[in-house]
Design a protein that fits this description.
With about 80 residues, the protein is α+β, with helices and mostly antiparallel strands. It has helices at about 10-15, 25-35, and strands spanning about 5-10, 40, 45-50, 60.
Length: about 80
């Protein structure tokens, strides 16, 4: 997936991997859904959550990483 940037059409993804793997389409769909870093978006922007609903017209995308920076209130009170 990293070869394609952060998003690729599912149909294009199929074309790029089918010659490289003997995996069945159901196995590929399951691996996509189970991957915590990927999401499948429909043409209208909704997210697919089940492997058997993935379609060639969908978009496979790296999930947006959420940054978490703890906010400490009160500044440096008590620190010397």
């Amino acid at each position: 997936m990293t070869e394609f940037g952060d998003a690729i059409g599912v149909g294009e993804f199929y074309g790029s991997i089918y010659n490289m793997t003997p995996a069945h389409m159901d196995d590929i769909h399951a691996a996509i859904i189970e991957n915590a870093d990927l999401q499948v978006l429909t043409g209208s922007g909704g997210e697919r959550r089940k492997a058997n609903t993935i379609e060639a017209g969908d978009t496979l995308r790296m999930k947006q990483q959420r940054s978490f920076f703890p906010v400490f209130l009160g500044g440096n009170k008590g620190l010397k």
